[in-house]
Amino acid sequence: MCNLYANTTSQAAMREIFEVMGQRDHLGNYRGQSAIWPKYEAPVVRMSEDGERELVEMHWGFLTPQVSKKTGKPIKPAAWNNARDDKLRSSGLWKDSFLNRRCLIPGSAFREAKGRNPATDYWFAIKGSDARPPFAFAGLWRAGQPGIDDDTGDWFTHTMVTTTANELVKPVHPTRMPVILDEQDYDTWLTGSADDAAQLLRPFPSDRMRIVCEGIGITADDVAAGDL
């Protein structure tokens, strides 16, 4: 599962890549993020109520309430930052968003860790003329977090869809990787039928990806700086 990704793409580039008009860009002054963790805000592209693409910030991870097993009292909510592709139509947590609220999550790299004490970090990106070509993960979003009573209950959140790992990712994470969408499929993911969108839930070709950083203690800033 993916618990850390980066989006170092400029705000102007995101508007161009994702075909968002200037007045539909609600990010304010966005500077790019070399590390995006669950529960933190990051840009997503979604369809507005009047059918136009817009750029907005949402917290990463659908929230669900938790209680302490010892005391029975509420504790910090769980953040579900990954949604399995084979559960999108059956899980109550994902189904309505898959049918009605799909989004694009701009990214430039994602990290998977292998081993323990210490783990080795592997950062994956797609190939291209730039050091970190921009791309989009398949995402879902929702407004409000049922069962959460404090201010976080009002959050807009997004989650990242995962699928079977390809041959590049599999040695690091044997089972799962985020769904990366081809640019020509952005509109289908955002506005197509559930059946058409489901056809896009497949591993990104491994020959179009590369490992851009590998090592123990690799920081997100190291990744943003370029190849090590």
Please give a structural write-up.
The protein is mainly beta and 228 residues long. The chain has a single domain (5-109, 134-205), classed as hypothetical protein yedk fold. 13% of the residues lie in helices and 38% in strands. The protein has helices at residues 11-17, 95-100, 186-191, 194-198, 220-225, and strands at residues 5-7, 33-36, 41-47, 53-60, 62-67, 74-80, 82-84, 102-107, 109-114, 120-126, 135-143, 156-164, 176-178, 180-181, 209-215. The strands form three sheets. Strands 3, 4, 7, 8, 11, 12, 13 and 14 form an eight-stranded mixed sheet that branches. The protein has a five-stranded antiparallel sheet with strand order 2-1-9-10-15. A hairpin with a 6-residue loop joins strand 5 and strand 6. It is globular, with a radius of gyration of 17 Å.
Characteristics:
single chain; 228 residues; mainly beta; hypothetical protein yedk fold; 8-stranded mixed beta sheet; 5-stranded antiparallel beta sheet; 5 helices; 13% helix
Distance between the termini: 24 Å
Helix content: 10-25%
Number of domains: 1
How much of the sequence lies in strands comes to 35-45%
Secondary-structure element string = EHEEEEEEHEEEEEEEHHEH
Outline the secondary-structure elements.
Blueprint: E1 5-7, H1 11-17, E2 33-36, E3 41-47, E4 53-60, E5 62-67, E6 74-80, E7 82-84, H2 95-100, E8 102-107, E9 109-114, E10 120-126, E11 135-143, E12 156-164, E13 176-178, E14 180-181, H3 186-191, H4 194-198, E15 209-215, H5 220-225
Parallel strand pairs: 4-12, 7-12
Antiparallel strand pairs: 1-2, 1-9, 3-4, 5-6, 8-11, 9-10, 10-15, 11-12, 11-14, 12-13
